[in-house]
Amino acid sequence: MSPEMIGLLGIIVLFAMFLLRVPVSISLVFVGVIGLAMIRDWDSALVQLGTTPFSTASSYSLSVIPLFILMGMFLSYSGFGHDLYKAVDAWIGHIKGGLAMTTIGTSALFSAISGSVNATTATMARISLPEMKKYRYDDALSTSCVAAGGTLGILIPPSVILVLYGILTMEPIGELLIAGLVPGLLQMGLFMIVIYVMVMRNPELAPVSDKKGLMVKIKSLKSVWPFFALFALSIGGIYFGFFTPTEAGGVGAFGALVLAILTRRLSWSDFKKSLNETTHLTATIFFILIGADVFSKFLALSRIPSATTQFVANLDMPAVLIMIFILLIYFVLGLFLEGIAIFVLTLPVVYPLITTLGFDGVWFGVVMILVMNIGLITPPLGLSVYIISGVAKDVPIQRIFRGVIPMLFMMILCLALVLIFPEIVTFLPKLM
Amino acid sequence: MSKMIEKSERFVQKIVRIQQFISNIFLVFIMSIITIDVLGRNIFNQPLKGTFEMTELGAALLVFFALAVTHKQDDHITIDFLVDRFSEKVRNVINGLVEILIACIVFFMSFYMYENGVRTMERKATTTDLAISIHPFIFVITFALIIFALTAIFKALTYFGLAVNKK
Amino acid sequence: GDDTSEASGDAAKNLDFSHFFPSSHFMEEEIKQFSKDLKDKTDGDVSITSYPGASLAEPDKHYDAAATGSVDIALSVHGYTPNQFPLTSVMELPFMSENAVEGSKNLWKIYNEFDEFDDEYAGTKPLWLYTTDPGQLFTVGKQVKSVEDLEGMKIRSPSPETSEWLEALGATPVSMPMNENFEALERGVVDGTIAPWEAVKTWGLDEVVDYATIGNFYSTTMFVVMNQGVWDDLSKKNQEAINELTGKRMAEKTGERFDQFGKDAVKQAKDKGVEIYELSDDELNNWKEYIEPTIQNWIDDVEDRGLPGQKVYDRAVELSNK
Ligand code: NA
Ligand code: NA
């Protein structure tokens, strides 16, 4: 059997295992190892089984994820998250979908601290989901907000993956980082609009509260300061060079803990619960990432990613059509592969191709992020959805996947706008 | 026979709880060292040596120590909607078989993790700044994986028990 | 029997070659060229598929991957797995070479002269070893000409030895992964970094650094190794062909590419306004006062392991003075 055939077969088996309720992580490891064995040999495949788990779990860029999650736990258990949403409710609770839009906005703000989607999603899920539940928001709507908001994490600078793109393609990293800002804000706006429209059509998704008096509004602000103090500390710390975006997780978690202790908001048992839940969620996410790593080594050896991109590269078609083909391929790869793996496996063929076709390299970097973000919320390998599912255990995963569909349309719309008006991406870096 | 199973299950559960505690300690540990490093670097021009590698190791240990308890609580992500449609008996059988599969894969993983540890020991691999030997950590993780696999086996037994009892 | 297996023994063997460089890097070109040469020389018996970007193994797992057969050939940096290549790390010491060709040639020579190296490469057959162009000091906002200038500056360090002498010089060494270096320099988390010119260009650091201080403080060394079993399975004829193609030839060739790329990087950095300062011998002597204890510590450490640290160091210095 050719490696490509083995690759396709692997994907089918992966689907089947998912449906039989085998944990996502275990399915990925299983198919990955057997696939590696079929393409190379058993010895080397089994070696992977013994090395990948440790090397993935001990990679620095991932090792700070638990700290971001912990920050979210502290903010939630100490009631800071609750206070924030209470204040938001006091001010804009009478507006349709106000809390959901707040979640998107807070995610955007949080994206200025965090450089990764995983960290943004996990932290925001923990802060916002319990609150939106209290205000009887529909759980498909609330989870989809977190999933959508989380994808802003790598668009709004800092962004781990845009730095990687710069290194892989030698495009200027500074320009790339700035280039993500406007599309990120555009996407944020589109998410808010779709929320508003959805709630207009079906008010039950997001019950509105009564309009509050001015005194209530002002009083509600009294208790949100810790939240903003923490944001100021984290964003300030990053932009004044006290710590890197990866370190911000550790400092932020510590800061949240100190604030919670100072304001006497965190009991000992809540502290313990925060730690327990953080380690559980981290183990869940990391085990999937370990599986995704084994699986992507298998797909790399199957040569499916390089073969499909090579195929498109050889097509004799107008540039625009080729671009659309490329984006389709990225969409499909995004179903099965994690962002970084996609970059590494396809850019060798795709990047030279799109630059010879006359597309702007910085622009394409942002376009890739937009497409890749779609992959994060689509099954079967929808990491963002899995992370949210790890927090919202009472919401069936297929409900989350279905809930994000309107957000998906907004992401596609944003992509279309960026394709038609490249200036959305390129004008800001050109000002530099 | 079933008494012995029960006893060993209780014993494994005890280890799982201890592992949860250790996992929490590592979480607090990496939070603390990053903060100390950042403060030390910016205020006293004295970073905490080895923060980078201790964070990596700490996070890895945190993850593997928490795997078993996470599995015990059914926290690993699964896609349920198809299996949910089957009868309870079929569901229990499928779940039991899946647990066996998990146990097998994780046992294999622990075995090859052990071999990886031996290789690492022979090559005297260490961390960069503090030159801490890496192989003890890999052996500890091997142990944690075995506990994970045992947890899966006990879950399988529970599922099969349910499948047999509910006729 | 034997005759036929000699002739068709390796009937079209394809080897997986894994490395961590991005596919846009010139080393991928070098590997493709090597693959072509290999195919020609072995009459199509042996060919190579290159897997760039560490898609088959993490950068610090490459040696292990080759030794265990997860991949057939692996290229990576010795320094990613510290202490596992005690003798090879002699070339990481300061002032060992002025350019990559010299460093690579000398490293390969020393490797062949001392049998004690064999333990470091157990399970593999080293095809060639090489160094990049030497590491220089790059700083943001403040030019470093003297030891005093360095006082209190936070510098990203590539190795524990470098951290040791940076500290002796009064700087604050910071460890971080290379992919965080750009943002750390840009925001001022660190004030500088020690890296070869090659890396400055590869990682886009010339966008953010303002000054370069040239002193040949460090060399990154890299290995290209083949799984021992795979090597043993090759026919004598093909082994000879590979030996001819690799070794000194590739060490030199790779060194030349790094030097050329380093020169391009200097030019590009100058265009971007990076100011370059070359330390004079007199000035370097000031630095050496602080740096030399690190070299002695290295020798002592290696001797403590029962390895000929002093001899290897002396030979490396002797070669570098030629
Ligand atoms: Na971000
Ligand atoms: Na996906």
UniProtKB/TrEMBL annotation, chain A:
Q: Which UniProt keywords apply?
A: Cell inner membrane, Cell membrane, Membrane, Transmembrane, Transmembrane helix
Q: Does the keyword Magnesium apply?
A: no
- The TRAP C4-dicarboxylate transport system permease DctM subunit domain covers 11-424
> What subcellular compartments does it reside in?
Cell inner membrane
Q: Transmembrane residues, as ranges?
A: 6-39, 60-80, 100-119, 140-165, 177-199, 220-242, 248-267, 279-300, 320-350, 362-388, 408-428
Membrane topology per the entry is:
Multi-pass membrane protein
Query: Is Cell inner membrane set as a keyword in this record?
Result: yes
> Which NCBIfam families does the protein's record reference?
dctM
- What protein name does the entry list? TRAP transporter permease
Organism, as annotated: Lentibacillus halophilus
Organism lineage: Bacteria, Bacillati, Bacillota, Bacilli, Bacillales
Automatic annotation (TrEMBL), chain B:
Keyword tags: Cell inner membrane, Cell membrane, Membrane, Transmembrane, Transmembrane helix, Transport
Q: Which residues form the Tripartite ATP-independent periplasmic transporters DctQ component domain?
A: 30-153
Q: Which residues cross the membrane?
A: 21-40, 52-71, 92-114, 134-162
Recorded topology in the membrane:
Multi-pass membrane protein
One Pfam family this sequence matches: DctQ
- Does the record carry Transport as a key word? yes
Give the protein family: Belongs to the TRAP transporter small permease family.
Q: What is this protein called?
A: Tripartite ATP-independent periplasmic transporters DctQ component domain-containing protein
